[in-house]
Design goal:
Rossmann fold; Four Helix Bundle (Hemerythrin (Met), subunit A); binds guanosine-5'-triphosphate; alpha/beta; 432 residues; Gyrase A, domain 2; binds magnesium ion; five-stranded mixed sheet; flat; 3 domains
């Protein structure tokens, strides 16, 4: 057990309105006494206080004291909300470090202490990193739901009956004479299997949330794809010119559409008789179209026989057709129109894309690839257990159930290895 007191700047580097310094450990209060002599803080109440370093006044700060064990880390915690000046924050941290047994915190060390002291469980610790790293509203919601404990509860709902089932099967092994027919386990086992399948589906949905959708702009040359791309990205990323065949390489950017992360791709326009490099570009367009979740066909209002060839590039269910250069149209058609130049119809297009991608439904609770992999093992083991009910021995069924149980335990963090903790906390920033 380590007894060092740790200190770190908890806010992002650089200037800001406020900067927060966090201190945790047995000497947290001593650090506070050094910086704000004479202050006797009321637990969990913000107090405006003068901070001093070597007698000199350095700032007016809001001071908070959270006595352990009812604090974030489970230890005594002090938070100093100073003005957000990087030099000032450093001066205060350096002063704190002069207190004996105080050192700088490593990445994620506050959360790690919270985990060690039972203040958060692993699913919540992981949710904290995901929340900090979230790139879209959907990721924020997924991480926040896990932080609130939703994942822990759902896992527990599967874990408890599985644990009981496992105990019963082991009992049967120990006292074979009392053995009922192993088939009597079937209802419970099937319910567990259902639960495991739901969790797996949720993990797949979460992977989708993390990766986001792939939206590809395609269509004939000069349709205005790059202009629209630039408008959606909010920056002049792609070259725009009235010469057909301007874009030759697929270009991608990450944008948020309806709260979801989307990779948006601008592609080389399609036409007959393109030169060699342009033809290579069109080849690339066709490749990325295969993977697209939504392919936006941007085309002129009056398209002739070519329209069917453009449509044929992508199956109907993944294609969204829009007419470009809406600002030049004198009559509205049946297909929605959009102008990358002046923004007409862009909001409506985003709404259509968002509807096609589907929205985050709160089911995407499970975090990452690691969870998905373990949950697949849970489901597979339970399927084998169910199959073994007919024509196999109790040993086999019990063995599979116990495999499922330990894979589920991995997700719950019941048996966490040091290496996995190190890997998790390496993703944290200092001060978290
Ligand atoms: N009036 C009007 N002109 C546009 C609009 N979008 C693009 N243009 C013009 O149309 C020409 C082609 O635009 P791009 O955005 O380069 O078209 P593209 O589809 O990327 O073309 P390629 O890369 O050659 O396939 C340029 O001269 C643009 O200024 C629009 O919404 N309205
Ligand atoms: Mg282009």
């Amino acid at each position: 057990m380590e007894h060092a007191t740790i200190v770190a700047i908890a806010t992002a580097p650089g200037r800001g309105a406020i900067g927060v310094i966090r201190v945790s450990g047995p000497r947290a209060k001593a650090v506070l006494q050094r910086l704000a002599p004479g202050l006797s803080p009321v637990p969990r109440v913000a107090t405006l206080s003068t901070l001093r370093v070597d007698e000199a006044v350095v700032d007016q700060a809001l001071v908070l004291f959270f006595p352990g064990p009812k604090s974030f880390t489970g230890e005594d915690v002090v938070e100093l909300h100073t003005h957000g000046a990087p030099r000032l924050l450093n001066v205060v941290v350096q002063a704190a470090l002069r207190e004996p047994e105080v050192r700088l915190a490593g990445p994620g060390e506050f959360t790690r202490r919270a985990l060690m002291n039972g203040r958060v469980d692993l699913t919540r610790a992981e949710a904290i990193v995901d929340l900090v790293e979230a790139r879209s509203e959907a990721e924020v919601k997924s991480a926040a739901a896990r932080l609130e404990g939703a994942l822990a509860r759902v896992l527990e709902e599967l874990y408890q009956p599985l644990l009981q089932l496992s105990a019963e099967l082991e009992g049967t092994l120990d006292f074979p004479d009392d053995a009922e027919d192993v088939g009597s386990c079937a209802p419970v086992l099937n319910r567990c299997l259902e639960g495991a399948r739901r969790l797996e589906a949720s993990a797949r949905a979460a992977t989708q949330v993390r990766q986001g959708g792939l939206v590809v702009l395609y269509g004939p040359v000069n349709a205005g794809k790059s202009t629209l791309f630039n408008r959606l990205v909010g920056a002049a990323r792609a070259l725009v010119d009235d010469e057909p065949g301007t874009t030759r390489d697929a270009l991608e950017a990450t944008v948020e559409v309806g709260g979801q992360l989307v990779t948006l791709v601008d592609t080389a326009g399609l036409r007959e008789g393109a030169g060699r490099v342009e033809a290579l570009g069109m080849e690339r367009t066709r490749q990325v179209l295969q993977e697209a979740d939504v392919a936006v066909l941007l085309r002129p209002q009056d398209a002739g026989a070519e329209l069917e060839t453009w449509r044929a590039e992508v199956p109907d269910e993944r294609r969204l057709e829009v007419v470009g250069k809406a600002d030049l149209l004198d009559r509205a058609g049946s297909v929605p129109a959009v102008s990358g130049l002046n923004g007409t119809g862009v909001e409506a297009l985003l709404a259509l894309i968002s509807a096609r991608l589907g929205t985050f439904d709160g089911e995407a609770l499970v975090a990452g690839a690691r969870h998905l992999e373990a949950l697949i093992r849970v489901r597979e083991a339970l399927e084998r257990a169910r199959d073994a009910l007919v024509g196999s021995t109790v040993e086999v069924v019990a063995g599979e159930v116990s495999l499922a149980l330990s894979a589920l335990g991995e997700v719950m963090g019941l048996d966490v290895s040091q290496a996995r903790l190190d890997a998790l906390f390496a993703r944290f920033c200092i001060g978290k």
